[in-house]
Design a protein that fits this description.
Elements: H1 5-12, H2 17-24, E1 30-33, H3 40-54, E2 60-64, H4 72-75, E3 80-83, H5 89-93, E4 100-103, H6 115-132, E5 137-143, E6 150-151, H7 167-187, E7 191-196, E8 199-200, H8 206-216, E9 220-221, E10 226-227, E11 230-231, H9 232-241, E12 251-255, E13 261-262, H10 263-274, E14 280-281, E15 287-288, H11 294-300, H12 307-319
Parallel strand pairs: 1-2, 1-4, 2-3, 4-5, 5-7, 7-12, 8-11, 9-14
Antiparallel strand pairs: 6-15, 10-13
Length: 338
């Protein structure tokens, strides 16, 4: 259990031996583009801590518009920050070069209401970044939303299964991958693509969404009856280890936990842990948005935190009134409209 956010952030950013070894084999500065989101601060801090262990004096630089501030979350731990509107080509061109680039920008919520902006961020921007960082290794974030809803008993698609996204956000996310693939092939940019399926750091995530409802006595809709999730510290580690696997054409990794979790069972467990009755609505569908990351574990490491332990951490955090980000995942959406 974690007493406070300082202890939580320290755990989220602790580099594994595999991360340290991977960065040792991927020398040079690390630039994280679009780093001000939910995952960026702990990912940047993990890279910084690994670099400090190596003692190679590389820079770790977080780039974002920082329109809401937040630089202190990086600078307090030795990560440099730069303000940049990445869609402004002059500002992008002025960014420092670096051998290692993490690409994190993405637009999901609001995609239905303003589809053109979503496509600009998710498809046009990757083209600009590939041209700017054509001599770098790039680890590019994508999403499990490039996959269709699949039968629960299948365990979810693997990286070799064809994408078939539902809705405009998912389609634009696949477009992002295709841009990285095109420029990887034409410019020789080595890329790893991270298809992340629901990271959880106790302040946000599918488990947090469910725990908050149980604790508040709200009914839980089980129509999207199953899901995958992963401790964000493990997702951070897998992301940084992907640098040494960047390839032409891109290498794709599903990044999520190994368990297919049932919403009903997880909420019943939350009810036990928090001493709350649980109410459900709806009926579980035979399909869900899932992905199978078993193939990635041999290359970029398996998760260290099992789902059962993560459920216990979330229950304790929510019940004690730990700070939440107030950013629901909307994982229950089945029509791809965000």
């Amino acid at each position: 259990m974690f007493r406070d956010e300082d202890e939580l952030d320290a755990a989220l950013s602790e580099p594994t031996p595999g991360v340290i070894e991977a960065l040792a084999r991927s020398p040079g500065d690390v630039v994280l583009l679009g780093a001000a989101g939910k995952m960026g601060p702990s990912l940047a801090r993990m890279a910084r801590r690994a670099a400090d262990v190596l003692g190679d004096r590389r820079r770790v630089i977080a780039v974002s518009r920082f329109s809401g501030g937040g630089e202190e979350a990086f600078t307090a731990h030795g990560v440099e920050t730069l303000r940049c509107d990445l869609l402004d080509e002059a500002q992008l061109a002025a960014l420092p070069d670096a051998p290692n680039v993490v690409y994190m920008p993405g637009r999901k919520f609001g995609s239905t209401a303003d589809a053109s902006t979503t496509w600009a961020v998710n498809c046009y921007l990757p083209a600009l970044v590939c041209k700017k960082y054509r001599t770098s290794r790039v680890v590019a974030f994508s999403t499990g939303n490039v996959y269709p809803l699949t039968p629960v008993e299948s365990g979810g698609p693997t990286e070799s299964d064809p994408p078939d996204p539902v809705g405009e956000y998912g389609m634009s996310a696949l477009g992002r991958e295709r841009m990285f693939e095109f420029f990887s092939r034409t410019l020789g940019v080595p890329v790893s693509v991270i298809r992340l399926n629901y990271a959880c750091d106790l302040r946000y995530g599918v488990l947090v969404d469910l725990a908050r409802k149980v604790f508040a006595g709200e009914p839980v809709d089980v129509s999207m009856g199953h899901f995958n999730t992963i401790w964000q510290g493990d997702a951070n580690a897998m992301t940084l280890r992907a640098f040494e696997h960047a390839a032409v054409p891109p290498r794709v990794f599903n990044v999520t936990g190994p368990e297919v979790l049932a919403v009903r069972s997880v909420c019943e467990r939350f009810g036990e842990l928090m001493g709350k009755p649980v109410r459900f609505t709806g009926t579980e569908a035979a399909t869900a948005l899932l992905s199978n990351a078993a193939g990635a574990y041999a290359s970029i490491g398996p998760p260290r935190v099992p789902a059962g332990r993560l459920v216990e951490w979330v229950a304790d955090w929510v019940a004690r009134g730990g700070r939440l980000l107030g950013k629901p995942t909307h994982f229950e959406t089945r029509d791809g409209r965000f």
